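Ticket closed. Logging final result for Ferritin.
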Amino acid sequence: MNSIIVAVFFCAIGFATCELQCAHKELDIPKEWVDMDGVCIKKVRSQIEEELKAAMQYMAMGAYFAQDTVNRPGFSEMFFKSASEEREHAIKLISYLLMRGELTTQVSSLIKRNLTPKTSSWANGVNALKDALKLETSVTKKIRELIKVCEGEGAASYNDYHLVDYLTGDFLEEQYHGQRDLAGKVSTLEKMTEKHGALGEWLFDKKLLNGEL
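Final structure:
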């Protein structure tokens, strides 16, 4: 028993005094397969920030409507879900860069901008939905700009067909459906509040919570 205690004691000393490192020699891996254009990579990194910025804004919206003094659980749930979707978009873009052999360096500098939400309170649900629609429109515009850059606009010798197809078929499809959905919600809520006032927003919130909108 004493020998076991002594052994454990010296092992503890060893872990406490030595530095655990994950160092290895530089690997000799062919780099011919890493072929993304530098300008395109920079634009993708910028889009990751845009997606995270949108996620933070949606989180602020979800938190605002979840307050006991506002108490709109339907709005809150919808905006928190939107925040998760924007965060997922950022993760997808990071995963894409990793798949293409990028992000092997300067990972810590991926996020440079201040992601603090521009707005943290709203007069009513209509204003919040309109802000959400403007936010989605801005993100869509940025994605379209990213596609133009990676298509080789202004540099005919380069066109990242795979990335452009991925962004067009996966990201833009979702953006356009989302924009149409928000525009419809704005229309419906404005009609309900015009006819029923504050009760109209309360009823709209209940429909959101029950998945009827």
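The two ends are 68 Å apart (CA to CA). No further action required.
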